[in-house]
Design brief:
CATH topology of chain B: Rossmann fold
Oligomer: heterodimer
Largest sheet of chain B: 6 strands, mixed
Helix content of chain B: 25-40%
Structural class of chain B: alpha/beta
Helix content of chain A: over 70%
Mean pLDDT of chain A: 91
Low-confidence stretches of chain B: 1-9
Low-confidence stretches of chain A: none
CATH superfamily of chain B: P-loop containing nucleotide triphosphate hydrolases
CATH architecture of chain A: Orthogonal Bundle
Number of helices of chain A: 10
CATH architecture of chain B: 3-Layer(aba) Sandwich
Number of strands of chain A: 2
Radius of gyration of chain B: 17 Å
Mean pLDDT of chain B: 91
CATH class of chain B: Alpha Beta
Strand content of chain A: under 5%
Order of helices and strands of chain B: EEEHEEHEHHHHEHEHEEH
Distance between the termini of chain B: 21 Å
CATH class of chain A: Mainly Alpha
Largest interface: A-B, 19 and 25 residues
Structural class of chain A: mainly alpha
Number of domains of chain A: 1
Chain lengths: 295, 242
Amino acid sequence: MLEDFLFQLEMAAPQIVLGLVNGAFYALLSLGLAVIFGMLNVINFAHGAQFMMGAFVAWMLLNWAGIPYWGALILSPLIVGVFGVVLERLMISRLYKMDHLYGLLLTFGLALIIEGVFRNSFGSSGLPYAPPAALTGAPVDLGFMMLPKYRLWVVVAAFFVCIATWLVIEKTRLGAYLRAATENAPLVQAFGVNVPRMVTLTYAAGVALAALAGVLAAPIYSVNPAMGSNFIITVFAVVVIGGMGSILGSVITGFALGLVEGLTRVIYPEASATVIFVIMAIVLLARPAGLFGRA
Amino acid sequence: MPDALPPTKTDTLLAIRDLQAWYGESHVLHGVSIDIRPGEVVTLLGRNGAGKTSTLRAIMGLTGRRTGSVMFEGRETIRMSPDAIGRAGIGYCPEERGIFASLNVTENLMLPPKVRDGGLDVPTIHQLFPNLKERANSPGTKLSGGEQQMLAIARILRTGAPLLLLDEPTEGLAPVIVQQIGAMIREIKQRGFTVLLVEQNFRFAQTVADRHYVMEHGRVVDAVANHEMASSLDRLHAYLGV
C-alpha cells in the first residue's frame, strides 16, 4: 500500500514541481499586476510583453555586453523598469481619470507593438539562454525525485521576492503611503507626499517585477516574443481569482494554482489547460471580488 | 465688519486675494479674500454649497484650475502642487475626516510626513487623545466618529504644520463629542497653532473662534469678530438661514 503510494508520488512529483515552478511565475507576474492595479487602477495588459522584455534584455546583456545571468537579474528589471517610467509618463498617466477600459486598451496595444517589434528583430523561433554555472550540474535529490537546481532556485527566489514585496507594502512607511493613496490619493498628496512620482515609481516597480520574472524564466523557456502572451491570460485569471489588487491574494493564488494545474496534469491531463479558468468561473460566481479581494 | 478686517500685511500668516476656483467647467469660487494672523482661530461660516469646503480645497490646490493669490508666510502658493503646499506647512483635515480603512490607527497617525519642527510628539498626542493609544492597532475606520475626528486632527498636529485647515470637524457628532472637539481646538490654539475652521454651526464656532467669515455663492460676504457675534446675530441668521 505504502509502496503503491510512493510510486504514485514519484510519478506525480515532476508534475507537481513543474506546477510549483509555473506557480512561481504566476505569483511574480500577478503580484506586479496587483501592485499596478491597486495603485493606478490600470489593468496592465502589457505585463506579458514586459516579462518577455526582461528575458530578452537578459539575453542581450549576455550576448552583446557579456554581462552574465547574475548581473542581468539586477540590470534587466532596472532597464525594463525605466522603460515603464517612460510609458507611464508619456501615455498611461493621461488615462487615470478615464474608465479602466481605456488603460486596458492602451496597454493591450502596447503589448502588441512590443511583441511585434521583438518578433521583427529576433524572429519567433526563440533564443537559447543557458542557466548560470552555479545552478547547473547534478539535480538536487529530494528523496522522491530529482529536482534541477535551477528550478529550485526559481521557486525559492520567487517566494522571497513575493514576501519582500508584501513586507514593503504592509510594513513600511512607503507601503502605508501606497495603501493610503489607493484609497484617497489627493489627501495623501495634500499631506506633502509627491503622489504622481510615487505612482510612476509604482508602475516601474510592477514592470520591474515582470522583467525579473522574465530573467528567471529565460533559462527555462526559450527566449521568444510570444513567451509573455502564453503566460499572461493565465496570470489574469490568477489575479481575478486572488482578488483584483490584493497583494497577498495574488501571491498565494499564484503558487496554489500552479500546484493545482500540476496536479490536474497527473489526475486528468486533458483538463490541465482549462482547470484555472474553471476555478475562475466558480470563484466569480461565488465571490465576485475574488478570494482575497475586498467586496 | 471694520473691526474684523483687515490685519496688516506683516503679521498675516495666510493672505488670500481674489481666489477663484473651478471643478471642470463649474466655477465654484468667485473671488475669495481672507486674512489669517498667526495664532488665530478663524471660521468660514455659510450654508451648504456656499464654497467653504471648496475654499479649503483650493488653498490646498485640490480643486481644478485656480487663480488669484494665496500667500502663506509671505510665499505665493497658487502655482504649487498640493504636495508642495502640504510641505510648505499647511495641515489639512478634510470633511468626513479622511481616515484610511486599510491603515490601522497608528499608521493613520504616522502617515503625514513631518514638514517642520514644532509638531506634537506621539506621547503628547496619546496624552491628549488616550483612545488613540488604546486602539493603536485597530483599523482606522473601526473607531467611533468622534475618535476618527480626533485621529484626523492629531495626525496633522504631529507634522508641525503651523496652519491647520479643519473641514467641519463637528459634523455628525454627538453634542458631548462636539464639546470635546471644541476643547481640543482651544488647546491647539493655546499651543500656538493657527486654525482655519469650516463650520455650519455658528453656536459652536462662537465657542472657539476669534473671527468669522461668512460665505455665500463662492464669495466672502461678511466678516464678524467673535466679540461682535451677539450684536450681529440678526445678520448671521439672515445669511445662514437658521
